[in-house]
Amino acid sequence: MPLKQAVLPLLSSRSALVEEVGVANTVLLPARYGENTDVGGVVDALAAAGVTSAGRAVVLGGGATARSALAALRLMGCDDSVAVVRRPSDVPAREVVWSPDVLDGCELLISTLPAGAADRFAPYVRDVQVLLDVVYDPWPTALAAACRGVVVPGSAMLLHQAAAQVRLMTGLEPPLGAMAAALKHPA
What is the spatial distance between Cα 12 and Cα 2, in angstroms, rounded to a whole number? Predict the structure, then answer.
């Protein structure tokens, strides 16, 4: 995860999206071409759950995945997003420190925090309309269990960003159904 930004100086070339977001999660070899499939993974995971726009969004976290989530929100037309961070970061959003009122009017909450790190926010998310928690193991997270709105699991983001990687690496359309089944029933 921390390598998504550290890899940038090692790339020979990168996509416009990587330039914009400052994060690469995919490197094609031997060309050392960097791409970001996390942004599309967020957009596609939310779209699969019927969420294609959000007026006001909150992102928990200030790391590489938060940067991708914020870019995804911009693609979805969200022009009112904030990032809840512990310390100042360089995410392209207004940064705030946590308080329960940060969720007032929140239509979409995206947690980019690692497993267990967002558990303390669980008592406050019950009325959030849509939650995407990028954690996929363990599932459900405390946030997911507490939210009464639409909950999109991290495995959905993982599925869609991996599908984009398959397209990039092979030029073929990925077997999305088989990939989804594998996520639900790991070997």
Answer: 19
Q: Which CATH number fits domain 40-153: 3.40.50.720, 1.10.10.60, 3.40.50.1170, 3.30.420.40?
A: 3.40.50.720
Residues 6+ apart with CB under 8 A from 45: 132, 152, 156, 157, 159, 160
Query: How far is it, in rounded angstroms, from Cα 15 to Cα 169?
Result: 14
Length of the chain (residues):
187
Residue 82: is its pLDDT beyond 50?
A: yes
Whole-angstrom Cα distance, residue 92 to residue 81?
10
Task: Count how many Cα atoms sit within 13 Å of the Cα of residue 40 in the half-sphere of its side chain.
Answer: 17
**3-37+158-176: what CATH class?**
alpha beta
Facing residues of 14 across strands? 34
Non-local (6+) Cβ contacts of 74 within 8 A are none
Contact 143, 119 (CB under 8 A): yes
| For residues 10-24, average pLDDT | 96
pLDDT given for residue 187 in this prediction: 44
Q: Are 29 and 7 in contact (CB under 8 A)?
A: no
